[in-house]
Amino acid sequence: MPDLIRVGMADYKVGKSPATLISYGLGSCIGISLYDPQTKIGGLLHIMLPDSTQARASDNPAKFADTGLPLMLDDVVKAGASRSRLVAKIAGGAQMFAFSNATDVMRVGARNAEAVKKMLKSFNIRIIGEDTGGTYGRTVSIDLVTGAYKVKTIDRGEKEI
Amino acid sequence: MLDEFDLSVNQLDALREIGNVGAGNSATALSQIINKRIDMNVPKVALVPLDAVPDLVGGPDTIVVGVFLRVYGKAPGNILFLLPQKSAFYLVDTLMGKSHGDTQQLDFMDESALMEIGNILAGAYLNAFFTFTQISMLPSIPALAMDMAGAILNVVLVQLGQMGDQALVIETEFLSDDDGINGHFFLVPDPGSLRTIITAVGVE
Lengths: 161, 204
Hints:
The complex is a heterodimer of chains A (161) and B (204). Chain A is of the alpha+beta class. Chain A has one domain: CATH 3.30.1330.200. Helices cover 18% and strands 35% of the residues of chain A. Chain A has a five-stranded mixed sheet, with no helix packed on it. Chain B is of the alpha+beta class and 204 residues long. Chain B has one domain: CheC-like (Chemotaxis protein chec), CATH 3.40.1550. Chain B contains five helices and eight strands. Chain B has helices at 9-34, 85-96, 108-133, 149-161, 193-201, and strands spanning 38-40, 44-49, 63-73, 77-84, 137-139, 143-148, 166-176, 182-189. In chain B, strands 1, 2, 3, 4, 5, 6, 7 and 8 form an eight-stranded antiparallel sheet that branches. In chain B, a hairpin with a 5-residue loop joins β7 and β8. In chain B, α1 packs across α3. The longest helix of chain B has 26 residues, at 9-34.
C-alpha cells in the first residue's frame, strides 16, 4: 500500500491523499479520524483516556480525548483542511476482559467513547461513522483518497464505516 | 511518590531479583503441570514507553491469548500472562491430553484451563514475592481474552497512562524444551506501589 503512515498509541498523524493513516491493535482506546472530503486532508488520533484532569504536567496531550482532539484539529486545519467541512469517524472503546465487578478502570472504553462524542459535539464536528464498544480489539485505518475508514478485527472480519 | 524514572541500578537489580524468584516459582509450577521442562530467561525490568510495550510480544496486531489478574494488597498491580495463539493452542493440547495440532480454537473448557494456569502461575509468583518482600498480595479471579496484543495490553497500560508515559514492566519469557510453548509473564505494579516494594526490599 502506498504511503502507509502508522499512528502509535497516544499519538496522532495528519496527512493528505493518497496516504493512508493506520493504527494497530486498539482495545479500550479510540481511533478518531477527521477528514475534509474536498481537499482530501485528514488526521487520525489514537487516544487512551477520556480526560487529562488527573494528568501530570509532563503528559503527552495526545493520550487524552479532551487535549488530543483540539491539537489534531488545529494541525488538520493548518495543513489546509476546511474546518467547516470536517467530518469525524470513530472506532474502538472495547472492554477486553469481562469482569463481573467491573470497576471504572475496566469500563474505560465506554467512558472514552462518551468523552470523544462530547468533544466532537462541542467542536460542531459531525460523526458520520461509528463502531465502538464490544469486547474485541480493532485495527483502524483511514484512506485519505476516499475517506473510507476501515475497521479490522480478528473474529469479525473487516468493515468500513 | 517515588519517581519511577529515577531508580538506581541497585533498585532495578532488586526488582529483577524479585522477578527472577517469582517467575522461577511459576515456571516450576507450569513444568510440573505439563510435565515438560520449562526454561525462563533472566527477567527484564525496564521502563518502557507505553507505545513500545506491545512490541515486546511481536507487535500490536499479533494474535495472543492473555490471562489477566488484578493484584490486591499493599502493593497493588496487574499480572498478565500472554501466549502467542499457537503456544496457547499447544498448551491446551498438552493440558487436555489431545494430540498436538488438535486445538484450532478455544472452547469454554479450554479457556477455563488456561485461566487456571494463569491463576496457578500468579499464585506461585506472588508467593515468592511475599517470601522476598513480606508484602502479602492476592490475585483476583482470572479473565481471559484472545485478541490483538495491543488491545489486550491496553487494559494494563490504561491505568499506567493515567500517571505517566512510561511503564515499569517486570517481564519473563517462558520456553518449553520442545519449543511449543513460549509465554510472557508481566508484573506491572501500579504507579504508587513501586515505593512500597522498594522500601520492603530495603535497597536505597
